[in-house]
Design a protein that fits this description.
Elements: H1 2-49, H2 55-59, H3 72-103, H4 108-120, H5 125-139, H6 146-170, H7 174-182, H8 187-216, H9 219-224, H10 244-252, H11 257-291
Helix pairs in contact: 1-11, 3-6, 3-8, 3-10, 4-6, 5-6, 6-8, 7-8, 8-11, 10-11
């Protein structure tokens, strides 16, 4: 009887080992396939656009002539947009997460809010564009300006920041809070000096993903009526502007091969901007991880 039991156990172990190898191979192949597609896309973009990457391309305004066209207007507009989106979304998102985790009572109303915030993270971006068009462009009469686009994109990424910030705050051990209370600190002092510094790595991780999405979105900006061609720079948040995704979208719609190559060069600039922004956030996150 013992011999039969050992045989069954050995067979089950073999099946599990085979199953483990099979799934490991499938997952590894999936990873390689994704990396291959990404490599092909990057190769295609860099081979098409590297000839246009120079200071003239970065310093020139858009033009109907490919040899004179540049991304200065779109690049400055993208910086303006992120200057509005970053503080707005982070302050509102982290503030909401703090209230829901530290102050709000755990009842059905709070659960209702949490469920709706989670559902908002999956809403198509064009819906937020329609919301921004109704509220900021028409109701507040901001027009197709930096402030309209910035507030709309802030609403778009807000659910992701709230959820990630909640998870980061929730992961802080209760013992740290209790130790702070035991030293005589108030609730707000505990949140400001203990909870938030320890939760910053998790908050920044969600913020990085959210802001990366905001910088590459096009659909809400199209709904807001941002121009595809703009030959002047915005001076205030109430001026009309354009961004890199809109400029790239404009160039890809042109039949000339030169404009297709300009679009590839614009994609490279957008990727570099994303890498720089994410690198700064990662450095800040790693600094706080070492401290806490």
């Amino acid at each position: 009887m013992k011999f039969i039991d050992q045989t069954i156990v050995v067979k089950r172990m073999k099946r599990r080992l085979v199953s483990n190898r099979l799934f490991k191979t499938i997952f590894f192949a999936s990873t390689l396939f994704g990396l291959f597609i990404l490599g092909v896309l990057l190769y295609r973009v860099f081979t098409q656009g590297y000839n246009y990457l120079d200071l003239q391309f970065l310093q020139s305004l858009p033009s109907r002539k490919p040899e004179l066209a540049g991304v200065k207007t779109a690049l400055i507009g993208t910086v303006w947009l992120m200057a509005v989106v970053t503080p707005t979304s982070l302050i509102l998102g982290v503030g909401t997460a703090i209230y829901l985790e530290e102050y709000a009572k755990k009842n059905k109303f709070t659960e209702f809010i949490l469920v709706n915030i989670t559902n908002l993270a999956g809403v198509p971006s064009i819906v937020f564009g329609l919301l921004g068009l109704t509220i900021f462009v028409k109701l507040f009469a901001f027009g197709s300006s930096v402030i309209s686009a910035g507030l709309t994109m802030s609403l778009l990424v807000l659910p992701v920041i709230i959820v990630s910030s909640q998870e980061a705050i929730r992961a802080i051990p209760k013992e740290m809070r209790e130790a702070s209370y035991g030293m005589g600190a108030t609730k707000w002092q505990t949140i400001r000096r203990v909870v938030l510094p320890a939760a910053i790595p998790g908050i920044l991780t969600g913020g990085i993903l959210a802001l990366s999405r905001a910088i590459g979105e096009t659909a809400p900006l199209v709904v807001l009526g941002l121009p595809l061609f703009l030959a002047f720079l915005p001076k205030t948040v109430f001026d009309t502007f354009t961004v890199l995704p809109m400029q790239i979208y404009n160039w890809t719609g042109r039949p000339q091969v030169e404009f297709q190559e300009l679009a590839a060069a614009g994609i490279i600039v957008l990727l570099v901007l994303l890498v720089i922004m994410n690198s700064i956030a990662v450095i800040i996150r790693n600094k706080f991880q070492k401290r806490y």
